[in-house]
Design goal:
The protein is built from twelve helices and 14 strands. It has 341 residues and is an alpha/beta fold. The strands form two sheets. It has an eight-stranded mixed β-sheet. Strands 3-2-1-4-5-6 form a six-stranded parallel β-sheet, sandwiched between helices. The protein is globular.
Length: 341
């Protein structure tokens, strides 16, 4: 049975999630881990894989086909570019990078070396989102009119005690680029490219951080539809992430990755009836825990893309779109002007 052999760069909390996922997949093998410190060495030993203190050594390993990058956001581009130049396929945690220039350099490096670059936007693989995309394509909602992305979360002082969090250098921004980006990506995934936007960002609760803990924006899509974005880490105790889609013939609300509500002009849709779950949708989101099911689906797509010699569903070209929108919101907030993309 052919397998994709992985190296993992970065062994923080999300890196450990990636390691567990890779170890559990039939067509994947975790060959080596690169990280700083004895606890990372011990983690590699626990998983029975090689350990590298320097990820350049990992990239020189001919046994490795692909690397998973789970470093702080500001370090994504350097590692990804080096991995691509070493002939490795790359799957990278979101955001693709902290600047558009670095994100494009990642895309260019992968293209030049004919390797695949995927970025983790696992919520595109959530069952409600997959079905919603299908419903839109089948015309069940008619023409899309407007949509909204809300990430109404809370992060405490302990979360921001990590020295790279809440910094422009390592995070590239605050609540929008780190927490809200997933549902912003979904808004783009469903509505298409953004034409223009206006926005405001503020740091109102977490005074110790450099970046925003509240950001809002109004969008116009190239289709003519409009949209709104709300994102925060300042709403105690943490409420929900919500995506709302409104069309000429129907409305859909997905909250906390669960189908909360839908109504179609044509009546009930059995595919949605199977997954409608208001109770789960209304549960509070009070921490950064990760549901791995959609991560697993994205990894399976990435592995199959490599084995089948096709593009993954979330390419670098797709992933950079949400970064472009968020950077435009920051620019709109700074200049107090509408920004055209």
């Amino acid at each position: 049975m052919k397998k994709v052999r992985f190296g993992l760069i970065g062994c923080g909390s999300i890196g450990r999630v990636h390691a567990d996922i890779i170890k559990g997949l039939a067509h994947a093998e975790l060959v080596a881990i690169a990280g700083r410190g004895d606890h990372h060495r011990e983690f590699a030993e626990d998983l029975s894989c090689d350990f590298c203190l320097d990820y350049e050594d990992l990239l020189n390993n001919p046994e490795i086909d692909a690397v998973a990058i789970c470093l702080p956001s500001g370090a994504h581009s350097r590692a990804a570019i080096q991995a691509a130049r070493a002939g490795k396929h790359v799957i990278c945690e979101k955001p693709i990078a902290t600047t558009l220039e670095e994100g494009q350099a990642m895309i260019d490096a992968a293209r030049d070396k004919e390797v695949e670059l995927a970025v983790i936007f696992q919520h595109r693989f959530d069952k409600p989102i997959v079905l919603l995309k299908q419903a839109i394509e089948e015309g069940k909602l008619g023409k899309l009119l407007w949509g909204s992305s809300k990430t109404i979360w809370y992060r405490d002082d302990k979360y921001f005690s990590n020295p790279w969090r809440g910094t422009w250098e390592h995070d590239g921004g605050g609540a929008l680029i780190n927490q809200s980006i997933h549902y912003i990506d979904l808004l783009i995934h469903l509505f298409g490219d953004v034409k223009s936007l206006s926005g405001k960002c503020r740091t109102l609760r977490h005074k110790e951080i450099e970046t925003e803990d509240i950001g809002v924006a109004n969008l116009e899509f190239t289709s003519g539809a409009i949209g709104t974005i709300e994102g925060t880490t300042a709403s105690y105790p943490g409420l929900y992430a919500e995506l709302s889609v409104f069309g000429e013939k129907g409305s859909v609300i997905i909250r906390n990755d669960q189908l909360l509500f839908y109504h179609f002009e044509g009546g009930k849709w059995q595919e949605f009836e199977k997954i409608l779950d208001p109770e789960k949708a209304n549960a509070l989101n009070t921490g950064p825990e990760v549901d791995r099911a959609s991560h697993i689906r994205q990894y399976e797509d990435f592995i199959n893309a490599i084995l089948e010699k096709r593009r993954p569903l979330v390419t670098g070209e797709e992933a950079i779109k949400s970064l472009e929108v968020i950077k435009a919101i920051y620019r709109a907030s700074d200049t107090k002007k509408e920004v055209y993309l």
